[in-house]
Write a structure and sequence with these properties.
It is built from 5 helices and 45 strands. The chain is mainly beta. The chain is globular, with a radius of gyration of 27 Å.
C-alpha cells in the first residue's frame, strides 16, 4: 500500500464516524423569509450565533436548518440592504420548529437599486459565503481565489498562485472586479513563488459572486470568467488580526456617531519562505509581500454618497540558489540531475490603485454612479544565474549494494540565465453606470473611457552548454539558446459600454426571466469596433418549484492588452485582432432534501467556439504569447456541483468538471492540437465538520484533482506541446479550536475586548504528493532532451492564530 493511503483511509473513517454521531442531538428549524411587502427573499442568510452553522433561503424564501437540540440558541437572519434580525430559540431532540421572518429595508444604506434576486440578472452568477475564505486551509494566502478553485469549471495546478483557469481559458481571460473597479495583476510574474498577495482582502469582503461563463453584458470584454467582489460598509466598530507561519493580517472597521462616515481598512503581510524550503531548489529564499487597503464611504444625504478605494502593494522576491537535486523517470528507469548554482535573482513589483465613486439614488428605482480610477504598476525582474548540471542514471536493483547510486553518466552541461526586465504601466479610467427598476424590467447601462500608458523593456538571454558545446551548436560563433530584447511604448485609448435589460415575462406555467444586452468596445491601437450581444434566460416551472432551468450565451470578445501583441522574440504585431468566442451554456438547479437536510444539484453543459485566437505557451504561471500566429478553436464540457449539509448544519460541496479544448493554428499544417489548458477531468471538494456536541472544534478540508496537462520542449513549436505532465493531486486540512468566545469570555481585563480567539493547525499537502508545475530541460551526451520536473511544495504544518474584536 502506498504511504499516503493509510492516512487517507483513516481520515475517511474518522469523518464518516463523526458524521454518524452528528445526526443525533439535533432539531430541525424551517420557515420562510420575506420582505416588507411580503415578497420572498432568496439567498437570505440564516446563521446560529457563535456556531459554525447556517444556511440560505431558496428561490421561494424557504429555508431548512439542522441545529443543536436542548440548547438556547440565537439565530441571525440577514440580507444585503435589510436590517438583520436576531431570534432566540430552543428545541427538543428531533423537534421540528417553524419560524417565519419578515425583514425591513435598512435605512440610509441603499447603495444601488435593490430588486428581487430573480429580476437582477444574476442567475448566471454563483454566490458564495465570504466566511468560507478565512476558514479554508490555504498555502497561497489568497483566500477568495482558493475558494473559487473549488467550483466547477475552475482549475489550478499550482497552490502557490491565486490565478486559475476556467473552462479552457488562461489566466488572462478572467475578469475580477472589486466594487465595480476592474483589478489588474503584476504582468512580469513568472512563477507562483514571486506572486505575493492577491488584491482581494478577505477580511473586507461582504459578497462574492462568480460566473464560469455565459455572464451578462454588464461585465467586461474577456472570454472566460468574472469574479465580482463587494467590500463591506460597516455598521459598528470591529476588527480582526491573524498570524501564522506564512504571514499575518490586521483589519479595522467603524462607523461614525452620525452614521455618515464609514471605513474599513487592512494590512497584510506574507512570506512563503517556509513553504519554499521544501522545494528541490535549495538556497536563500527571501520573499516579502505587503498589501495595504482602505475603503471609505461618506453619506452626504440619504440619496448621495462618495466612496474611495485605495490599495498599495509591494512584492519583493530575493533568491540566491545554491543546489538542486531531482530524481525522476519511471519504475524501470530512474534518473537524477544535480545542479550547482551561482548568482541571484532580485524582483520587485509595486502596484497602486485609487478609485473614487459618486453614487446617487434619487429613488428606490433609480441609481446613478460615476467612477474614476487610476492603476499604476512598476515592475523589475533582474537575475544572473549560472548553473552546472550532471545527468545520471541510477541503479534500480534493490539487491545491489549500489542501489540508488549513479551507474551511468548521461550528460554534463551548464546554463547562464540573464534578465534586466522593466515594466511601468498606468491605466486611468472614468465610467458612468446606471440602473433603473420598474415592475417588470431592470435596466442597466454603462459607458467608460480608459487611457493606457505602457513602457515595456525586456532584455533576456539564455546560454546553454552541453558536454562542451553551446546549444544551438555552431562551429563559427557562440550562439545563445534564447534572446529577447525589446523596447515597446504604447499610449492607447479604449471606449466601452453596455446596455442591458432584464424582463419578467408573464406566463401561466411558471416564471420566466429574460436578460438581453449589448456591449461595445473600441481600441484606437487597432481601430477595431466590437459589438457583443449576450443573453440569458431563467425558467421556474410552476409545478416544480425546486427546479430551475438556465440558458445563456452570446459573443465574448477580448481585445489585446499588450502581452498578446508580442511574439516569442518580443516583437509587436500591430495587425492582431481581438480574440473572439461564441458561447452557449445550458444549466439546471435542483433543490432536494436528503437526511432531512437541504441540498442543491447544479449542472451545466457548455460549448465555446473561438476565432482569432492568439496561441500561447505556459511555463509555471508565465504565459508567452505567439503574437505572429493565429488559430481557431473550441472548448466543450460538463460541470456538476452538489452542495448542502453533508454534516448537519454546515455547508460543503463537491465539484466535477469534464473538458476538452483544442485549437488549429492557421497555416502550420498540423491540424487540431490540445490547448495548454486541456484538462479532461477536474475534481474538487470543500468539506466542513465539527465535533458533535461541541462546535468549538471544527475541521475544514479542501481537496483537488486535475488530470494531465499538455506541455512541450523549450522554444519548441506550438504543435510539439502534446507531452502530458502528471496529474495534480492535493489535500489540505485544517483543525481549529475556539479558545475565547461569547460563551467562554476571559476574565482578564487585557482580553476583555476579544470577541473570538481561534487557534488553528493546518496540514498543507496532507498526502505529501510531489506535484509537477513545469519542466527544466537538460541535454544528454547524445543530444537527447530530458524533462526534469519542477516540483511544487511538500507536506508542511502551519499554525494560525485569529482574533476578532
Amino acid at each position: 500500500m502506498k504511504p499516503g493511503k493509510p492516512i487517507l483511509l483513516l481520515l475517511a473513517s474518522l469523518l464518516f464516524s463523526i458524521q454518524l454521531v452528528a445526526q443525533r442531538n439535533n432539531a430541525t428549524l424551517w420557515g420562510k423569509v420575506t420582505g416588507e411587502n411580503g415578497q420572498a427573499i432568496e439567498l437570505a442568510n440564516i446563521a446560529i450565533k457563535n456556531y459554525p452553522l447556517g444556511t440560505v433561503t431558496d428561490s421561494e424564501g424557504n429555508y431548512l436548518l439542522r441545529m443543536p437540540a436542548e440548547k438556547e440558541l440565537t439565530l441571525i437572519f440577514s440580507f444585503m440592504g435589510y436590517q438583520a434580525i436576531e431570534k432566540v430559540v430552543q428545541a427538543k431532540q428531533e423537534e421540528r420548529l417553524e419560524l417565519n421572518i419578515q425583514l425591513r429595508i435598512q435605512p440610509n444604506t441603499i447603495d444601488e437599486v435593490q430588486v428581487s434576486r430573480r429580476k437582477n440578472g444574476h442567475r448566471t452568477m454563483t454566490r458564495l459565503n465570504p466566511a468560507f475564505a478565512n476558514q479554508m486551509p490555504d498555502a497561497s494566502s489568497s483566500g477568495i481565489e482558493t475558494l473559487i478553485k473549488t467550483l466547477p469549471g475552475v482549475s489550478s495546478n499550482n497552490e502557490l498562485t491565486s490565478q486559475y483557469s476556467v473552462r479552457g481559458g488562461n489566466f488572462d481571460e478572467n475578469l475580477v472586479y472589486v466594487n465595480d473597479i476592474e483589478i489588474y495583476r503584476p504582468f512580469l510574474v513568472r512563477s507562483g513563488q514571486q506572486e505575493g498577495l492577491s488584491f482581494i482582502n478577505p477580511d473586507m469582503v461582504s459578497s462574492i459572486e462568480f460566473s464560469a461563463g455565459g455572464f451578462d453584458a454588464r461585465y467586461g470584454d474577456k472570454m472566460a470568467s468574472v469574479l465580482d467582489i463587494k467590500y463591506r460598509k460597516p455598521l459598528a466598530f470591529s476588527g480582526s488580526a491573524s498570524g501564522s507561519l506564512l504571514g499575518g493580517s490586521l483589519h479595522v472597521e467603524d462607523l461614525s456617531k452620525n452614521k455618515k462616515l464609514s471605513y474599513t481598512g487592512g494590512v497584510r503581510y506574507k512570506t512563503n519562505r517556509y513553504l519554499l524550503g521544501s522545494l528541490d531548489e535549495k538556497g536563500d529564499y527571501n520573499p516579502d509581500f505587503i498589501d495595504i487597503q482602505t475603503y471609505i464611504t461618506y453619506h452626504f444625504t440619504d440619496h448621495f454618497d462618495l466612496s474611495f478605494l485605495w490599495n498599495l502593494a509591494t512584492n519583493n522576491y530575493h533568491f540566491k540558489p545554491e543546489t538542486r537535486a531531482t530524481s525522476f523517470g519511471t519504475f524501470q528507469t530512474v534518473y537524477n540531475t544535480k545542479i550547482y548554482f551561482d548568482g541571484q535573482e532580485k524582483d520587485r513589483f509595486a502596484t497602486t490603485l485609487g478609485a473614487l465613486s459618486a453614487n446617487y439614488h434619487p429613488s428606490s428605482k433609480l441609481n446613478l454612479k460615476l467612477i474614476a480610477s487610476a492603476f499604476r504598476t512598476k515592475e523589475e525582474v533582474n537575475y544572473d544565474i549560472l548553473g552546472r548540471y550532471y545527468l545520471n542514471e541510477l541503479e534500480q536493483d534493490m539487491a545491489s549494494e549500489s542501489a540508488g547510486d549513479s551507474v551511468l553518466n548521461l550528460g554534463i552541461g551548464s546554463f547562464l540565465n540573464h534578465a534586466r526586465n522593466k515594466l511601468s504601466a498606468t491605466v486611468v479610467s472614468i465610467a458612468h453606470k446606471g440602473a433603473y427598476s420598474s415592475s417588470n424590467h431592470l435596466l442597466n447601462w454603462e459607458i467608460k473611457a480608459q487611457l493606457e500608458n505602457i513602457d515595456d523593456r525586456i532584455n533576456e538571454w539564455e546560454m546553454r552548454d552541453s558536454t562542451g558545446y553551446s546549444l544551438p551548436y555552431s562551429d563559427e560563433k557562440v550562439e545563445l539558446f534564447r534572446v529577447v530584447n525589446t523596447n515597446n511604448q504604447m499610449n492607447n485609448l479604449r471606449l466601452s459600454g453596455h446596455l442591458q435589460d432584464t424582463y419578467a415575462v408573464p406566463i401561466k406555467n411558471g416564471e420566466l426571466y429574460l436578460t438581453g444586452g449589448l456591449r461595445f468596445n473600441y481600441w484606437n491601437y487597432t481601430n477595431e469596433w466590437l459589438l457583443s450581444p449576450r443573453f440569458s434566460a431563467s425558467y421556474y416551472p410552476k409545478e416544480q418549484s425546486r427546479l430551475v432551468f438556465r440558458l445563456a450565451g452570446g459573443s465574448y470578445q477580448q481585445p489585446a492588452f499588450f502581452k498578446e501583441l508580442k511574439d516569442r522574440d518580443g516583437n509587436i504585431n500591430p495587425r492582431i485582432k481581438a480574440q473572439k468566442s461564441t458561447q452557449l451554456v445550458l444549466g439546471t438547479d435542483y433543490l432536494f432534501q436528503a437526511w432531512d437536510r437541504p441540498f442543491k444539484l447544479s449542472s451545466e453543459v457548455f460549448y465555446k467556439y473561438f476565432s482569432h485566437l492568439i496561441p500561447y505557451q505556459v511555463d509555471n504561471v508565465q504565459i508567452r504569447y505567439l503574437g505572429d500566429q493565429e488559430a481557431t478553436g473550441y472548448a466543450a464540457g460538463l460541470d456538476f456541483k452538489v452542495n448542502g449539509e453533508f454534516v448537519s448544519g454546515v455547508e460543503s460541496w463537491v465539484s466535477v468538471s469534464l473538458l476538452q479544448t483544442q485549437e488549429d493554428i492557421i497555416g502550420d499544417g498540423y491540424g487540431w492540437i490540445p490547448r495548454p489548458t486541456d484538462q479532461t477531468l477536474n475534481l474538487s471538494l470543500f468539506f466542513q465538520d465539527y465535533f458533535p456536541g461541541n462546535p468549538s472544534y471544527k475541521m475544514h478540508l479542501a481537496a483537488f484533482y486535475g488530470s494531465r496537462l499538455p506541455v512541450g520542449p523549450p522554444n519548441g513549436e506550438r504543435h510539439q506541446d502534446t507531452f502530458r505532465m502528471p496529474p495534480y493531486r492535493r489535500i489540505d486540512i485544517g483543525f481549529s479550536k475556539i479558545v475565547i468566545g461569547p460563551q467562554n469570555r476571559s476574565a482578564a481585563k487585557l482580553l476583555a475586548p476579544i470577541k473570538d480567539l481561534w487557534l488553528s493547525l493546518e496540514v498543507l499537502n496532507l498526502l505529501g504528493v510531489r506535484n509537477t508545475v513545469s519542466y527544466f530541460w537538460v541535454s544528454s551526451n547524445s543530444g537527447d532532451l530530458f524533462a526534469v520536473p519542477n516540483y511544487l511544495t511538500d507536506r508542511k504544518l502551519n499554525v494560525k492564530l485569529t482574533v476578532k474584536f
